């Protein structure tokens, strides 16, 4: 049978990039997917791609929206917390607003999603939570990713803590730590740098030992594994998928 048949999955930031690739991978593997994002146009085009994908607008910074959505649409077997915001800069480039925005989207959002979904998982004695961290975290110091890396390190702590608390109650919690992945937001960051876009792409690629960036589908494959019962013995872990960048 299919790898995710009978499972209901909630995904944040599913409109683009890794979240979108994962929504499609989960649906193709037999899951019922509730894909959420703040970009309703992106959600509409995603829903058109597979009949097992339902969509709803969700801003992860809104704890009230999160609670209402889970109450109405839960319980879920799988939660993929994919939403994230990349602030570029050193500590000296980081003002309070950028710091708070980084935490609000990358950490507070995840806290509220996990807290909303966990009771339904515990009640049924099963569930898999997958949290999007990054190699830029407690794993590797990356220049100009100060606030981002602090929040992604917090995601690893959040993940391991939840895993420890519920390890005997059927709920698993794991983190994914990608290197540089070719997604729309990376394209936007390249455009925002201004000047020679080809040169900026080359500099992203130049730091890759494999000589290429990752593809969203390569991260979705790991999320699918962690969502499925194939990974039943795996919890509290941080999975690096970075083409050897942090090695
Ligand atoms: P992306 O930028 O391509 O897509 C992001 C999506 O998030 C968009 O559809 C956007 O509308 C949505 N979004 C933004 N703010 C939101 C909010 N408040 N609530 C809900 N949705 C919101 O994304 P991506 O590059 O695939 O990144 C996804 C995750 O992967 C992020 O957590 C990111 O930090 C992480 N990550 C990405 C890379 C990379 O190189 N792309 C590397 C490591 C980790």
UniProtKB/TrEMBL annotation:
Keywords annotated in UniProt: NAD, Oxidoreductase
A Pfam match: adh_short_C2
Highest taxon of source: Bacteria
Similarity comment text for this entry: Belongs to the short-chain dehydrogenases/reductases (SDR) family.
Protein name: SDR family oxidoreductase
Organism (species): Dyella mobilis
């Amino acid at each position: 049978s299919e790898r995710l048949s009978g499972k209901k999955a909630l995904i944040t930031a599913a409109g683009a990039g890794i979240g979108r690739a994962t929504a499609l991978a989960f649906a193709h593997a037999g899951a019922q997917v509730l894909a959420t994002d703040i970009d309703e146009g992106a959600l509409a085009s995603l829903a058109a791609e597979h009949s097992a994908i339902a969509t709803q607008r969700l801003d992860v910074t809104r704890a009230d929206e999160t609670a209402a959505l889970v109450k109405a649409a839960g319980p879920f077997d799988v939660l993929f917390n994919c939403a994230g915001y990349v602030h570029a800069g050193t500590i000296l480039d980081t003002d309070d607003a950028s710091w708070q925005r980084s935490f609000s989207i990358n950490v507070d959002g995840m806290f509220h999603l996990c807290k909303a979904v966990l009771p339904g998982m515990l009640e049924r004695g099963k569930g898999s939570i997958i949290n999007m961290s990054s190699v830029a975290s407690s794993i590797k110091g990356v220049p100009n990713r100060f606030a981002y890396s602090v929040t992604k390190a917090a995601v690893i702590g959040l993940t391991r803590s939840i895993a420890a608390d519920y390890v005997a109650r059927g709920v698993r919690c794991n983190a994914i730590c990608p290197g540089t992945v070719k997604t729309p937001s990376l394209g936007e960051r390249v455009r925002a740098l201004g000047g020679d876009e080809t040169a900026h792409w080359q500099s992203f690629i130049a730091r890759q030992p494999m000589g290429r960036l990752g593809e969203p589908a390569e991260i979705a494959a790991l999320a699918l594994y962690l969502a499925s019962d194939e990974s039943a013995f795996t919890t509290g872990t941080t999975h690096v998928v970075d083409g050897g960048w942090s090695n």
